[in-house]
Specification:
- The protein has two domains: about 60 residues, no CATH class; about 325 residues, Aldolase class I (TIM Barrel), CATH 3.20.20.70.
- Helices cover about 50% and strands about 10% of the residues.
- The protein has 20 helices and eleven strands.
- The strands form two sheets. Strands 4-5-6-7-8-9-10-11 form an eight-stranded parallel beta barrel, surrounded by seven helices. A two-stranded antiparallel ribbon has the order 1-2.
- Helix 2 runs antiparallel to helix 3, helix 7 packs parallel to helix 9 and helix 9 crosses helix 10.
Length: about 500
């Protein structure tokens, strides 16, 4: 099954002429901007066709649809934004005990994001991020342009007013690739980061903790490569960030699933990082703003630990260490605080403890995936087809002694990309049942993380900056009445292990 198989169940456009006709009376293109003439009409049906084309169409329809969503969103009150100023305010003590959920949406992306916005609106929550990791981008087949289009389209559809925090999660240096060719691996992270910024990701988490060398005698020596590459990426981000926006950059000191982080690790990273950042600033002739948060390890693992029967093992999160790391991050370095990864499979009763520990952000992914796959409304025939696909295509990932339940649990994330069209083509009633199950979970998490009733706080601190994005050349040519060449083909997706 291929991701771009045309399917009449997915609204889209056959060609650019059909797309432009669909805009008539609803929106008008004015140079590099879009004027919305009929807000209700735009939200009611046009946006569904635009996002379908943004995901499944070939160019030029795909690129024009993505641009139209990006250009129309601010006109309808939703704009890509950086969470940096908000986190800096937390670092100054202007607010506390509010932990931002950073949600990795791997599939059914438009539907799930719409559900997140509905939960946020019901709870007056504007502190949440929509993110995707470098490794997830490969197996979900979602490049930044597609993911950002989904995030903004969902905001438009649900009438969201305010910032949309889109984040590149775990833009991670792969240790194995780094050992083979360090420059090529760092270059791959750099190129993805620049692509993401251009797509509207104004929040980027750099993860070079994978190359921390614990065999070295001092913590600063252990963290030296991590600090150097994080500082280098900070400079690259500052050079590309749009005028008026300070992109939120995150660093990481402890690989999730490894030993727990310590305050000494934090200090051992920050000392060389700040020195390296100063040196990077000299290269460009100005001081550079550093990271706004730091990711740590306190006992979780990505995806949870699955038992032979398919259930998830209980884990012990060191909330005292998390609280102490957040305190030192704020008081010593002015950061928003510490970030917790791999938490979505924890019991929901845990979530208030992240807010109590003053964690600034918590990353959530697999738990929501589980609720979709394990929902009684999920079609059994599609689940069987997916598991048969995994048995055939990913048998090399089955470890000795693994049960079918363990194998399918750990590999089913790899179905999101190859079965993307099948997920999007599920009957509307089925998708609604799946989303009805997710919505109260999102709402409960927002409440327990302390980010409900934060609309006024965000509106006060996060400034709107409209970033001009040139209209695609194909659209400009079509508006001049010129013949537009159709460029068929799929986008490429690097497969990077990590999360």
């Amino acid at each position: 099954m291929t991701v771009r198989t045309p399917n009449p169940a997915i609204p889209s456009f056959a060609n650019l002429d059909e797309l432009l006709r669909a805009l008539e009376g609803i929106a008008r293109i004015e140079g590099d901007a879009v004027r919305v003439l009929d807000e209700a009409g735009f939200r009611a049906g046009l946006i569904d066709r635009l996002v379908g084309a943004a995901v499944f169409a070939d160019d030029p329809v795909r690129s024009v649809s993505r641009w139209l969503i990006r250009a129309a969103a601010p006109a309808l009150g939703a704009f890509p934004a950086s969470i940096n100023d908000l986190y800096r305010a937390a670092g100054r003590g202007e607010y506390a005990h509010a932990t931002a959920p950073a949600i990795n949406v791997r599939g059914l992306t438009y539907d799930v994001m719409r559900t997140i916005y509905r939960a946020a609106h019901a709870n007056d929550c504007k502190i949440f991020l929509l993110e995707l990791a470098r490794s997830e981008m490969g197996y979900t087949e979602q490049r930044p342009g597609e993911y950002a289009a989904n995030a903004l389209a969902a905001a438009i559809k649900e009438g969201h007013q305010g910032p949309v925090f889109i984040q590149g999660d775990h833009y991670q240096i792969n240790a194995r690739n780094y050992a083979k060719d360090a420059d090529a691996e760092v270059g791959a992270v750099r190129d993805l980061t620049l692509e993401a910024i251009d797509a509207g990701y104004f929040n980027i988490d750099i993860d070079a903790s994978t190359i921390v060398d614990l065999s070295l005698p001092t913590i600063e020596e252990q963290q030296a490569l991590n600090a150097r590459h994080t500082a280098e990426m900070t400079r690259i981000i500052r050079e590309r960030e749009p005028k008026g926006i300070t992109i939120s950059v995150g660093g990481e000191i402890g690989e999730v699933g490894a030993r727990n982080s310590t305050v000494e690790d934090l200090r051992g990273f920050m000392a060389p990082y700040l020195a390296d950042l100063k040196a990077q600033g000299k290269q460009v002739g100005r001081d550079l703003e550093g990271i706004s948060k730091i990711s740590v390890q306190t006992g979780t693992s990505h995806g949870g630990v699955v038992l032979p029967d398919g259930s998830i093992a209980q884990v012990a999160v060191d909330f005292d260490t998390l609280a102490e790391l957040s305190r030192v991050a704020r008081e010593a370095y002015g950061l928003g605080g510490a970030v917790q990864h791999g938490a979505s499979t924890l019991p929901e009763t845990y979530f208030h403890r992240f807010a109590e520990a003053n964690a600034i952000e918590v990353h959530l992914a697999t738990g929501f995936q589980n609720r979709i796959f394990d929902n009684p409304a999920f079609p059994a025939d599609l689940r069987d087809e997916i598991y048969a696909y995994l048995d055939e295509k990913h048998a090399d990932e089955r470890k000795p002694g693994m049960t079918d339940a363990q194998f399918h649990y750990t590999t089913r994330k790899r179905a999101w990309g190859p079965f993307k069209a099948a997920f999007w083509s599920l009957p509307a009633a089925t998708r609604q049942r799946l989303m009805d199950d997710l919505e109260p979970v999102f709402g409960l998490i927002m409440q327990r993380l302390g980010v409900a009733n934060t609309g006024a706080l965000v509106d006060r601190i996060v400034r709107r900056v409209d970033v001009p994005v040139p209209a695609p050349a194909a659209l400009q040519a079509a508006l001049r009445g010129e013949q537009v060449t159709v460029a068929a083909g799929r986008e490429s997706y690097e497969q990077v292990e990590g999360e």
